[in-house]
Amino acid sequence: MDQALKRLREPMTLAGVFTLAAVSLGLRFLPAHLLLAAVATLVAFAVAFLLLAIGPDAWRRTKLIALAAMAALALLLAALTPPLGVAQVLLVIWVACAVSLLEPRWVVAAMLPLNTAFYLLMLQSGFGAPLTMTLINLGFQSLAGLCVHYARSAEESRDRLALVNADLLATRALLADSTRDAERLRLARELHDVAGHKLTAMKLNLRALANDPAFAQRDEVKLAHQLSTELLDDIRNVVQALRDSRGLDLQTALRALAAPLPRPALSLHIDEGVTVTDPAVAETLARIVQESLTNAARHANADTLFVTLEKDRDALHLRIEDDGRLQAGMVEGNGLSGIRERVAAVHGELRLEASPRGSLRLDVRLPA
């Protein structure tokens, strides 16, 4: 419902509603015996228009039927109201709707027979200068079609740019974490190999001094030996802490991928014990979630994508499921094939299945 209201508030939809309201005002000049049929035709056209404008993307077949009905209703109104000249406005609306649903070449191919039929109706009704009216009508249709086409292209370019930007942000987050981990590992190695080695040598020398009768009773030697032992233990603890604190920030990267998408929302749960230090595994996880977001939006009309990442013994267990429903069943296209290839590249396992409600469920196991 929220999505339908959002579509209803879009500028193109509101423009169509206001145009239909303006057309309805012109029907009051019709004779009484034609008024009821014309009003019913206009109402049916409005219903088909709203169905096409605010219906979910998954209703493509229904929208195509509505689009065909709108063309027939526009011609019917033209036959009922030839003196008014309001029906051609419906054809302008039809072209705008068709461009948003079909490829331009199919719209152009459909415009020719529609306008030919409109010309013949005007000619049959004795309307003055039917060819001129048809050409003017065709010009307005072309203008509406071009406006919608370029608006749609700009919107798609904006969406692609937002996805690319999100991809870059996620990659940058993973790269920054990888660089940070590499620096921590380098510091841990330096502390262990250099400072640890020299402190071990100092401790051995102090032990030798403590065994010398001339220094055995000196408190300074005992204290120095004790401090060197404690310092060596402290360095070992710091080295271990640096190694244990390694791990890529998957939370930030995955949420960055979902941020530009209006739908579906990402419900993400990562167990506290999960740590990913391998950039290849982290990238695989990010790409799987990214493709799942795309599939849930395009093919399942889902509102939420549920992602859970857990540590299962020596493996990472990723579970993904949405709250939508697959329209064409579970068909493994390029996206799912890409996920399978990525999982295989890091020696993981992938299982695909349909949930009881008809959505896609991914079960992935990757090396920890």
Automatic annotation (TrEMBL):
Entry superkingdom: Bacteria
Domain Signal transduction histidine kinase subgroup 3 dimerisation and phosphoacceptor: 183-245
Protein name from the UniProt record: Histidine kinase
Record field: transmembrane: 12-30, 36-55, 62-80, 86-106
Keywords: Kinase, Membrane, Transferase, Transmembrane, Transmembrane helix, Two-component regulatory system
A Pfam family per the record: HATPase_c
Record domain Histidine kinase/HSP90-like ATPase: where: 282-367
CDD domains: HATPase_UhpB-NarQ-NarX-like
One term of GO molecular function: kinase activity
